Amino acid sequence: MIAIWSFVPALNAYGVTYLVLAGLGVVGIGLWIFFSLDRVGLWFKQRSTQFMLSLFVMALMSFVILGGINWVAVVKNEKIDLTANKLHTLSTQTLGILDKLENPIRVRVWTTNLEVLSPNIDVKGLLENYRMAGDGKLEVEIRNPNEFMGEATEDQIRRNNVFIVKDLKTGRESRIENFSDSKGEEQLTNAIINATKGRKKQICFIGGYGQPSLDNRDPQGISSLNESLESSNYETREIVLSNIESIPKECEMLANIGPRNVPVERELTMLRDYLNAGGDMLALMGPRSPAVWKMFFKDFGVEIREDLLLDRLRRDNPVLVQTQNYSQDVNVTEGFNAVTIFPEASSIQVPGDLHKEGVSVRTFVSTEAHVYSKKGEINSIKNIRPSASDLQGPIPLGVLIERSLANQVEVAPEKPTSDGAYFKFQWPELIASAQAQEAPEGFDLAQAQAAFDLGEAASDEPPEIKNANQSRVILFSNDLFVVNGIVGQGGNMDLFLNSVNSLLNDESLIGIRPRDLRQTFLRVTPQDMRMVVGFFLIAAGLFLVFGIKAARRRTTMA
Questions:
Q1: What is the DSSP letter of 69?
Q2: Where are the domains of the chain?
């Protein structure tokens, strides 16, 4: 048969030769067994044959078991992270985001050396965790810009170590050009979210009243806050109300952090118009914030008291209030359990049921029960010992205010009282300054002053409608928990970012707490080594004793 195929190559097509030869071999073996059943029976009865067959079956079973384990490991690829700070495990927030991916995502890393991209974490392992959790919807590409110059030019790569996350269906991209050890997962997860959701949203910070600057890196600045917002793909800018006629339409949320100076009524009216048009605001007011700012929220039935919160368990520093008391009914703190720290905080007076007036006020952060409040301004309180007249915890620290625009009632602005000295001494100076200059034709100074007194000096152009149904305000009675010197402690940063995400309807955006990157070393002392050596000596001695005993028993039986 082989000779025929050798002389007629045309018959050897599509591997038929090998199939025929294999079939003939099987038939031949079957015929030999059939005509040699007696010899086969005697062969099976031999002890050597039984030993060989048992060995073959054990080897076959071992192969099947190992193959099955390998198949399961490939299909269900799982890792176990034994590090104390879970450095090699993705957070539950990230896993939830990757599980909900609808479009295919590509993560392309442009680097000349991935191994040295981070000295503290395994970036390759981190990317592999994302690929595995993506379950086929996320692919990872690692490119060297010196080797793929054409693609690098298309991706506009001008520096080393750049991450580009792209939604392959829509074509939207998000970049990471300042990869950080401690924030790597947060940056990558938020880049994936932003690539799938589209454009950046703009947050406008109110300035000009003594608030900390966005680029101030001092302990009392908020540059860390600004960097975290930018890493979450938000745009930030600072606006000064005295320099504008109305809130810019690009501002999708206002943030007012720790004002120290008093505004004029025109500026407060501008903010009221913004909220009446459906705008959202995040306000952080501390004990040192002027009363006129705190009274601004009376329109919503909420009041920040003139008091100071004290922790009876912290005798060394009682003004540093810590809490884990959160409401799970508000998305800002749903599932949140980190400790947050509020230095020099006041209390919030929350009204009763305001739903019938179209206003809903819900407390989502409160103090612990062992916290109490002392009435008075922070600089005037001398005795901080607890007394029967003190307000006892839990005390509201953060509230979510929602007001229906359809049912809102126009409330005449209330004139500030505690800061009336400002208007008493500043207004005459402003009036005198205006009178000293040449007024334009038709300008009535008295009418202008009356308009400001009545709060009617708002811009003629109505602000853009931000929300057709309601306006929302998240109010904290503390402004120092987000400054550089303390925002990195506990869950402070996460709480602020969650508040921003809630107001901008970006609940999927997250603030993943930085991992502790301190490396853990296995330290073995000489005593530990002696214990290890002793253990092996004992084990070897036991094997030797039982071996000698078994040998003597076999000799006796023989």
A1: H
A2: 2-75, 92-194, 199-435+445-460+472-490, 522-558
